[in-house]
Amino acid sequence: MKTILWATLTGNGNYAQSSSNHPPKEEALGDFAAHARKAGNFIVGRRTFEGMQASGSGGDFAEMDIVVVSGSVKEIPGVTVVGSPSDALSYLRDKGYPTALISGGADLHNAFLSQGLVDELIFNIAPVLEGKGLNLLIDTEKYQYKEVELLNFKSLGSGVVQVHYAIDHTI
Ligand SMILES: NC(=O)c1ccc[n+]([C@@H]2O[C@H](COP(=O)([O-])OP(=O)(O)OC[C@H]3O[C@@H](n4cnc5c(N)ncnc54)[C@H](OP(=O)(O)O)[C@@H]3O)[C@@H](O)[C@H]2O)c1
């Protein structure tokens, strides 16, 4: 099973955070929905999932296998709750999905990256600069730099640019 990490970054390379004052671009949200539909699933951190529920966007994904990762919560109605990134992947692999989509937020993305559990990266770069922010971190004990292969790039409209990379785990 292939794992794809999907994230929005700011133009100055931060991990984009959304709020009611700074909502995500429609183009980025539409792109996430398209990837989630294609995969039939997504894996999400407990805090981001609660944010989706609060904003009412959880219902947009009612047909999908939503896997919430949490160490503190054991059950949430309508979704599957697991205790770790590897448990999330085992659950989706056992259900026969060819692809797992990792949708965020920062803590969860960094847990997958630091454990070497990501095969491809899809970054949507939004036309915004952020003063302070979050970063995506790889396994910092193993790598200072890790080269990745550019698979594709395209414009999503309204200044959002998508880059798609593959991570080679053999190097
Ligand atoms: N740029 C983007 O593409 C994007 C996408 C989504 C969200 N966001 C932004 O990201 C922010 C939210 O991210 P966040 O980092 O605060 O929260 P998060 O990653 O959504 O959720 C964090 C929670 O997930 C659980 N978790 C994460 N890693 C785990 C692990 N290895 N094992 C067990 N549980 C684990 C823990 O839940 P428990 O506390 O229950 O143990 C943890 O507190 C918001 O600002 C949101 O706007 C951005």
Key phrases:
171 residues; 3-stranded parallel β-sheet; Dihydrofolate Reductase, subunit A; 29% strand; 4 helices; alpha/beta; binds NADP nicotinamide-adenine-dinucleotide phosphate
CATH topology: Dihydrofolate Reductase, subunit A
Radius of gyration: 15 Å
Strand residues, percent: 25-35%
Any idea what the shape is? globular
**Could you spell the SSE succession in H and E letters?**
EHEHEEHEHEEE
Q: Structural class, judged by helices and strands?
A: alpha/beta
By DSSP (H or I, 4+ residues per run), the number of helices equals 4
Instruction: Please describe the biggest sheet, giving its number of strands, its sense, and whether it closes into a barrel.
Output: 5 strands, mixed
Say how many strands there are: 8
CATH homologous superfamily title: Dihydrofolate Reductase, subunit A
- Report the uncertain regions: none
Bound molecules: NADP nicotinamide-adenine-dinucleotide phosphate
Task: Domain count, please report it.
Answer: 1
Q: Percent of residues in helical segments?
A: 25-40%
CATH class annotation: Alpha Beta
* Average of the residue pLDDT scores: 94
- The span between the termini is 20 Å
What is the CATH-assigned architecture? 3-Layer(aba) Sandwich
**Strand order, sheet with most strands:** 5-1-6-8-7
Domain Bacterial bifunctional deaminase-reductase C-terminal: 16-161
Pfam family, one: RibD_C
InterPro entries: DHFR-like_dom_sf, RibDG_C, Riboflavin_Biosynth_HTPR
Organism: Paenibacillus violae
